[in-house]
Amino acid sequence: MAYKSILTITTDVSGAAAQIDAAVAIARREDAHLDVLCIGVDLTQTGYYYAGASAILTQAAFDQAREDVARNEEEIRKRLESEDIRWSVDTAVAQIGALGGPVATLARFSDLVVLNKPYGPSGTQAAEAILEAALFEGRAPVLVLPEGFSDAEFGKRIALAWNQSDEAMAATRAAMPLLKASALTDITVIDPPAHGPERSDPGGMLSQLLSRHGIRAEVSVLAKTMPKTSDILARHVRDIDADLVVMGAYGHSRFREAILGGTTRNMLEFAEVPVFMAH
């Protein structure tokens, strides 16, 4: 399998230059079709205004979102018209709470969704909603880019976070084209359980699976020497000079991740390299 249908989503083209550049580069690298979805975000919070003002403000917010998305679409088309890849641009207008609809519709028919990381100084509530919609409603693998990342030169050395979970296996299967193209895949196991099917050989069965696909893989078993698993994983990524992380998304409930953090959110917030996720 290869990635032949790639989707990227933007709500503000002025801050998405690196994201578009990266999506174009990845589409060229994979010989894929690039779909760009421009979303105009209607910021109206229905119910916060008295009845007479509500309709007026709702219409004004919708009109502004429609103008924004039309302008973004025009700029995206100008940006892509000289590229030597296959591409298309679509638009939608939605409130924050309804972003899942247009995102999931396209994401579920895409091999890969490319997004900027939704956390940090440039993160927005809309970006978080788009990421979650692509992962959970669209059921698509997502490649999350660190700030300013704009090329396709990644995946030579991959850190594959393995904890025996369904999410980690889903991410592994979805990342197969990237794993096959890598020079080395490091199966990273942090604080493996003392009991279970892999207790005597953590990561061994996964290493065997990957090797049968022609993937050069090795296993790193790390002790939990820091309070956060994400900190250990991030340090290991730097130690082995990995340029891509593959991991399962949201091993705990989404509510717990949103309120307390968790490995997934922490990795995305502080990632220095692209992070490939699936759920």
Plain-language structure description:
By secondary structure, the protein is an alpha/beta fold. The chain has helices at 17-30, 51-80, 100-107, 125-137, 166-174, 176-181, 204-212, 229-239, 254-260, 263-270, and strands at 5-10, 33-42, 86-95, 112-116, 142-145, 157-161, 184-190, 217-222, 244-248, 275-278. It folds into two domains: 5-145, Rossmann fold (3-Layer(aba) Sandwich), CATH 3.40.50; 157-278, HUPs (Rossmann fold, 3-Layer(aba) Sandwich), CATH 3.40.50. It contains ten helices and ten strands. Strands 3-2-1-4-5-10-9-6-7-8 form a ten-stranded mixed sheet, sandwiched between helices. Mean pLDDT is 89; it is low at 47-53.
Total strands: the figure is 10
| CATH topology (level 3) name of the largest domain | Rossmann fold
| Helical stretch tally | 10
Number of domains: 2
What proportion of the residues is helical, as a percent range?
A: 40-55%
Low-confidence stretches: 47-53
Query: Superfamily at the CATH H level of the largest domain?
Result: HUPs
CATH secondary-structure class of the largest domain: Alpha Beta
Based on CA atoms alone, the radius of gyration comes out at 20 Å
Q: What is the approximate shape?
A: globular
Trace the largest sheet across and list its strands.
3-2-1-4-5-10-9-6-7-8
How would a textbook summarize the main sheet? 10 strands, mixed
Termini Cα gap: 18 Å
**Proportion of β residues?**
15-25%
SSE order: EHEHEHEHEEHHEHEHEHHE
> What is the annotated CATH architecture of the largest domain?
3-Layer(aba) Sandwich
Mean pLDDT: 89
- What structural class should be given to the helix and strand makeup? alpha/beta
